[in-house]
């Protein structure tokens, strides 16, 4: 969930950093090259003597004659991460990030304060909880846990005056299952077995009933519930918590190990519910059996799953989470999701989860917000007043300084890693977390004072440092990505340097640039310098995931790149049985080029949203009252790419070739990036990446001869 497209400004650099694309204009003539636009095999080099309009090429630099290479006016960016990751000492003078970016030393007081807050929190956790890893196993105490002779249930609800456990097992009568409260506001009960069997059957409904200061009793879904369901036959029906403890015969056991961490993630962003061709919800198992093979066939190495955490409002795209430890029941059970992840691992696919810790659903009946009954922020998951409410998202904001909030969120991460074998996370809404203003109506310019001052939410920064340290301690090969539009320095530097600890950030300005060009500029108005600058505008030693479009770019009210380029002609002009119209020819060519140049120049990893690889038409519109609760625009029309006489297959094949190219040459993980030419006159972009040279001719008419 993006904070605000308008906030995506320039990412700050620092003086000693080599820069790419400082408007070098000399056109680099190139000899033999591989014509990717022709979908040639990447295993051989084909000789071309010209660069047709709106086409792109790459070739192995070893094929360049040295005397020709000397003609190049090179502007280089060397993205080389060679700095120490030794443990940060409590010594204020030993904050390692200053050796990476000396300009940050001007904000030394801020980093000292951040460092001290982080170390203080660590000391307290180790003193009272044993270790960070143990602290993050809250799910072994809270929620429902099977014990030798019964079921233990614990809930943190300090605002409650009385509490009961109710459900199908006691006819929703809680008088015989009253809970006891300790000095920390934790309510507890042990439900003994009956005749050697659990008194609360697997799959039965349960809720936490409590009385608060006005004497009113309310029922809430347990905060740590592991499954929640709703009656689909009743419109607007509330969710019910479900006690999930399947017998061994029904419990899924993982069969395959986690695959090795890829040198560079090529991410396929997917939404399970909307992944089927028919206008209906898809299941975890159908996605595993039908969609994962497609992803693997197109040579992606990573799958990023959206909308996994339970959310009562489907159209939120999974970003208004109601039950943080529960798998979304729309697509199946926890065991079904485990099957999906295991199947992905069997195919060599790393699986990331889109995790939402930036806010929570405002839903009182179904969600965590139901535990907020007007108490102080110390006794709540959320801040009180305006600080606890996101006015654009209509959602609640966590109090990251609260001990039990830290336990809840850190345990949530470990739960998904340990129980479901996820391989990492994409953290949603990080910009909103980092600043008290949440990025609302803020245009970040790259001035360091925007990142290190009173506007910074240090509590949230410390939580993210703890979270990244935990994830990498538990799983050293984990991939953790930040969705941040602000470009905060050190966000993707190790915690040991007093960085925030993410592995990658999303380059969110890139898709906005493409949308701006496609909607507002004619082809001859495109600036190669501006495109190149946008694609290379990232911080030295901080890795990025580049993408031309994601789910954000095709939500209702907007269109995919393909549909923006070709619009209504996609309904009539995609048949290969007739000549391509100028609109279709230009659209397919630019679709390929935009995605390829974004991948090759824009980051150290690449992301594509489900279906965009073959130019999925139209937009995404979830079932809602305004569209008659239709699923027609909430699906993926795989039949389009599967139909042999339709041109969608060419875009899909090109996408597969792009990924294969990185498989063969590993250019995404290369530290070498040299932009040789970004010519607005010729509409050419030429650059080296790793051992390859890429040539893009964006001119709509001119063909350049060697």
Automatic annotation (TrEMBL):
Residues 1-23 are annotated as: Disordered. Its main location: plastid. InterPro entries: A-amylase/branching_C, Branching_enzy, GH, GH13_cat_dom, Glyco_hydro_13_N, Glyco_hydro_b, Ig-like_fold, Ig_E-set. Its EC number is 2.4.1.18. It comes from Platanthera guangdongensis. Keywords: Amyloplast, Plastid, Transferase. It comes from the Eukaryota. Belongs to the glycosyl hydrolase 13 family. GlgB subfamily. This is 1,4-alpha-glucan branching enzyme. The gene is SBE1. It is found in: Plastid, Amyloplast. Residues 281-647 form the Glycosyl hydrolase family 13 catalytic domain. Pathway: Glycan biosynthesis; starch biosynthesis. Pfam families: Alpha-amylase, Alpha-amylase_C, CBM_48. The keyword Metal-binding does not apply.
